[in-house]
Structure formats: structure tokens, C-alpha cells
Amino acid sequence: MILKLYDLAGAEIDRRFSPYCWRVRMAIAHKGLDVETIPWRFSDKDVLAPSGQGKVPVLVHGDNWIHESWDIAEYLENTFPDRPSLFGGPLGKSLSRLYANMGDVMAAQIVRMVLMDIYDRLDEKDKPYFRESREQRFGMSLEKVVEGREQRLEAFRESLLPLRMTLRKQRFFGGDSPLYADYALFSQFQWARCISPFALLADDDPIKEWRDRLLSAFGGLAKSAPAYD
């Protein structure tokens, strides 16, 4: 049974930018599995009805519809135990939850710097929903949310110090090779890279070197995506 993944797309059908979809795409590649990615837009919520909710990522495997990136990672680990482990064992799985949560916190910072770039690259039919829902969430206009992002950038970079200190000692958060913990954080930078020309990382940052190693992983899966470098 082929794996199918509903994957968020912008106006360009191959511009896939959801950080949570990227977590899953990297996890699937880590497992060495083939997947058919299906472009999905915010206005296509009805096609996800079998999953019982209206957001991506959604993985379809036979009769199973699994949503939420963490639940999908667990499904992949349990369903394909003979393939390389995403977590490196039970203890690694517990630590991976921390990294996934760190990625969520990071996303809340990044979105305030790239929100208008996301809007500008959406399909026209998605823009009204996106503007209304995000302005309701933030309590202000999209333009106001990203105002002053250049001044906030240094504080964001400084907040990454624990990651930087770790990567000065090892190539990946998983050690010598990446694990789901890496993908949970990498996906945030891939999201920004795919949707915005605003540079989050300095060229000499060890985090950027780590990001670039993951861009080249799995035959350049992430590097080949339409993006702004």
C-alpha cells in the first residue's frame, strides 16, 4: 500500500511550505519509504473529511487516515519497525517530544517575521481565509504583525544559543546522524526558506551549517524544493 501525504501548497503547486508537513516528509525519507504527496490548500478542507479534522499533514495508508505530525511519526515508527528508527529507542522518543515542542515555540517566533510572505505566496482563493483567521488569532493586521521584524531578528538568533552550543559539539541533535528531533527543528527553517526571502540565520552560524546538511540529506529532498536562499 502506497503512502499518501496531503501537503500544504502555495499558489505554485510545488511550493510546499508547512513546517509540520516537512517534519513528516523528512520522517518518511528517514524510513526509506515511498510517498505520493498531494497538494492541498486551505480551501480544500472537505477532502480531509475522513481524517475527522481539517488541517495537514494527513497521512493515508490503506484505510488509515492519520493527522498531527507527532502521531504520524509514531505511526511510521510502529508500522515499519524494520526500517531505521526515527527516535533511536524509547528514551530517544521521550527526548524527541522536547525537541518537537521546541520547534512549536520556534514557529511562534518565526511566523511573526514571515506572515506577510506566506500571505503573498498563497493561492488567491486561500487569501481571504488566511487573512481573516490569522488577524483574528493575532488581534491585528498581518502587516502589523511583521512590522519591525528586522529589529526582532537578533533576539530570535540569540534565543537559539542552546541549539548552537550543541551543534558545535556534534553534527546533529541525534548525534552522528539525524533523528526525528532534528526534523522537528529543521522543518521550521525549511518553512521559512520555502516561503520567505527574509534570512533567519547568519551565514557563519553552526545552525545554518546543520540546516544545510539536512537540506542535502535523502538525495537533496528538501534542497530541491522551491525556496529563497
The CATH level-2 architecture of the largest domain is identified as Up-down Bundle
- The residue fraction in helices comes out at 40-55%
Shape field:
globular
CATH topology descriptor of the largest domain: Glutathione S-transferase Yfyf (Class Pi), Chain A, domain 2
**pLDDT below 50 for ≥5 consecutive residues: which ranges?**
none
User: SS-based structural class?
Assistant: alpha+beta
- Content of β-strand: 5-15%
Radius of gyration: 17 Å
Mean pLDDT: 97
- Specify the CATH class of the largest domain: Mainly Alpha
Enumerate how many helices there are, as a single number: 10
Care to count the β-strands? Answer: 4
- Span between termini: 36 Å
Strands in their spatial order, largest beta sheet: 2-1-3-4
Count of discrete domains: 2
Architecture overview:
The protein is α+β, with helices and mostly antiparallel strands. It has two domains: 3-79, 3-Layer(aba) Sandwich (Glutaredoxin); 90-219, Glutathione S-transferase Yfyf (Class Pi), Chain A, domain 2 (Up-down Bundle), CATH 1.20.1050. 52% of the residues lie in helices and 9% in strands. The protein has ten helices and four strands; from the N terminus they run βαβββααααααααα. The protein has helices at residues 19-30, 69-79, 90-120, 127-138, 142-146, 149-159, 161-167, 180-195, 206-215, 217-220; strands at 3-8, 35-40, 58-61, 64-67. Helix 1 links the parallel strand 1 and strand 2 (35-40). Helix 1 packs parallel to helix 2 (69-79), helix 3 (90-120) packs antiparallel against helix 6 (149-159) and helix 3 (90-120) runs parallel beside helix 8 (180-195). It is globular, with a radius of gyration of 17 Å. The N and C termini lie far apart (36 Å). The relative contact order is 0.15.
